[in-house]
Design goal:
149 residues, alpha+beta, 49% helix, elongated
């Protein structure tokens, strides 16, 4: 059964450094949740309606990430394209994942929080982003720092 996303059910969407609720509302995007099995989300444009369908089985942080991921597709007008977590991804999916990670985990605020709090789960809670994305972004920043001396 498809459920309409309600902000009251997911108060964490306006948590962290990025208020996804305000962005979604300002673009008049409807979010629906349903069991999508292996797919995390999809952006569908139908009858002049913009809809993000998000897998209801994801936790809140993963749903936030999926919404940010679909927001990238929306902004680039990549309609009717489901996104799936898999090792081999096409360039649109990799770009949308990178956008979502950088959108939810802005570099300077992340560095500032990391200086104070080294625990990635706690950082994940501060930004309301999946912990694996926190680890991925921090690893990327550390590698960039090591390479640039």
């Amino acid at each position: 059964m498809v459920k309409k996303w309600e902000e009251s059910f997911y108060p964490s969407f306006n948590q962290g450094y990025v208020d996804l609720s305000a962005i979604i509302k300002s673009h008049d995007i409807e979010i629906k949740t349903i069991d999508l099995y292996e797919i995390n989300g999809a952006y569908i444009s139908y009858n002049n309606e913009e809809i993000f369908v998000i897998n209801e089985n994801l936790d809140w942080k993963e749903q936030r990430f999926a919404i940010a991921h679909e927001l990238c597709h929306y902004m680039l007008w990549e309609k009717n394209h489901p996104s799936k977590m898999e090792i081999k991804k096409n360039s649109r999916e990799m770009r949308a994942d990178k956008f979502a990670m950088n959108f939810l985990l802005p570099t300077q605020p992340l560095i500032n929080v990391y200086k104070e709090e080294k625990d990635t789960l706690e950082i994940s809670n501060i930004f309301w982003a999946p912990e694996f994305q926190v680890k991925k972004k921090l690893t990327s920043l550390i590698n960039k720092w090591l390479l640039n001396g």
